[in-house]
Amino acid sequence: MTAHLVERPKVAARPDPGPCPVIETDRLILRPHRLTDADAVAGSLSDYQVSRMLARVPVPYHRQDALDWLIRQGSGLISGWTLAITTGDDVHIGCVGIELRHGQWNLGYWLNRYYWGRGYASEATHAAMERFFRRMPSTVLHSGVFADNAGSLKLQKKLGFEITGCSQIYALARNGMVSHIETRITAADLRKP
User: Fold this and answer.
1) pLDDT tens digits for range 8-23
2) Are 85 and 120 contacting, i.e. CB atoms less than 8 angstroms apart?
3) If you write DSSP's letter for every residue of 130-179 in order, what string do you get?
4) Is residue 151 part of a domain?
5) Do the domain assignments include residue 10?
6) What is the pLDDT of residues 116-130, one digit of tens each?
7) CATH code (residue 118)
8) Residue-range definition of the domain harbouring residue 67
9) How far apart are CA 39 and CA 186, in angstroms?
10) CA 1 vs CA 6, 7, 8, 50, 170: distances in Å
11) Residue 8 within a domain
12) Do residues 134 and 141 touch, judged by C-beta distance below 8 A?
């Protein structure tokens, strides 16, 4: 009698990081977005100083644009997380998202201009990436900044991103092509700001 070995199928890597978490930092709470965030999102993204640094935000930006975006985020059709950056008293001040696009995981973020310069973006992006890498440790996370966004490039370098190239991408708010510095990071490269 011969024993037949049954080959077990290989377990594929987790296809996504799972449900959007709630993450607490020293000063912030990152949580899934709610439809009630529409006014805050619209208020932040209607500021051209914020929207001009984002590729997919139209100008002008209205409350209905925010509602449409929030509905899409909550639809389950997008792989990844879109976390509201909130203060301890639940004031919505920005967003950090990790999304699967074109087969690559991408990090994006924005902050209401009145909260710039306080380290909130670094704190929020680090916390989101740290949790993401705990769930998907072998993933490479891609990001980038427009070439004229020195503050965001400084933030990414501080977190451990490396520059991988430069390209031209269309910026909806600017209605034109913009130089974009491409970056990437792995779990091993992540540094606390």
Assistant:
1) 454 445 578 999 999 9
2) yes
3) HHHHHHSTT--EEEEEETT-HHHHHHHHHHT-EEEEEEEEEETTTTEEEE
4) yes
5) no
6) 999 999 999 999 999
7) 3.40.630.30
8) 23-189
9) 35
10) 15, 19, 21, 72, 67
11) no
12) no
